[in-house]
Amino acid sequence: MRIDRRGLLSAAGSCFAAxxxxxxxxxxxxxRSRTRLILLGTKGGPSRTPTAVDRHLPSQVLLIRGVPYxxxxxxxxxxxxxxxxxxxxxxxxxxxxxxHSDHNLEYGNLFYTAWATGxxxxxxxxxxxxxxxxxxxxxxxxxxxxxxxIPDEGRADPRxxxxxxxxxxxxxxxxxxxxxxxxxxxxxxxxxxxFAYRFDTADRSIVISGDTAYSDAVVALAKGADVLxxxxxxxxxxxxxxxxxxxxxxxxxxxxxxxTTTEDVGRVAAAAGxxxxxxxxxxxxDDPAITDExxxxxxxxxxxxxxxxGRDLMEI
Length: 316
What we know:
CATH architecture: 4-Layer Sandwich
Oligomer: single chain
CATH topology: Metallo-beta-lactamase, Chain A
Mean pLDDT: 90
Radius of gyration: 19 Å
Structural class: alpha/beta
CATH superfamily: Ribonuclease Z/Hydroxyacylglutathione hydrolase-like
Number of helices: 13
């Protein structure tokens, strides 16, 4: 996958350098040595509508020396990994930013499908409480199927393979020979704690904002990063949406308190000095009337470097 042509044009050509990152020539060794980022789902919110067919719910995968690190598990993450060419049995790490259903609904199912596809190695899952309890309860829900498949298909027990790691504060949560992963607490009321993650590898630094209002913690976490994938909310469209729905006033109150407007996304990227801003977790992500240029225009008031509107299966 490549950054799509419409996104580049709407950014007035400013994203050309980002496109070249996904077009590097080279063989399998080159692909395994560099860090790849693929956006799997770019629509914010739990709903699925007929106008959202081109956007799945939030998730992305970093391939670091060929190893998948999945960030968030919105509905559709499993199929999107397959479409991106990632072998499910190669899954090794899952990171959850927070416990809203559009970010964790397919957590257990992703692992379980990988197991059914031939996964035999451990998968470490990272995120806020109650990740341990969720993991245990997922296996309880599927115990009947597990107990049938183990003897009937000659499979190993999947329960010891999924290893949840909970944390409630920011800091380094994982460090190995290939990557250092740092978490920062971000404001996303009423869900606490909620995290952003920074991945520092040998060749790139990539920050995933998670769901957040404008946050100095994201600015600090993203200082000097190569890529910032930040949620974005287009305020005129959500105000129109609020006028159409029965719970509009309460919904609008929540969105304004817990998410980041496109203008504030530009402020964050500028303050952090990131090299490339990628807008994702788009709210609303199912309104075809919002063009890429509309998403980018307010951010450009504050941030004049490379920007792109994320699309499903875009590789950065």
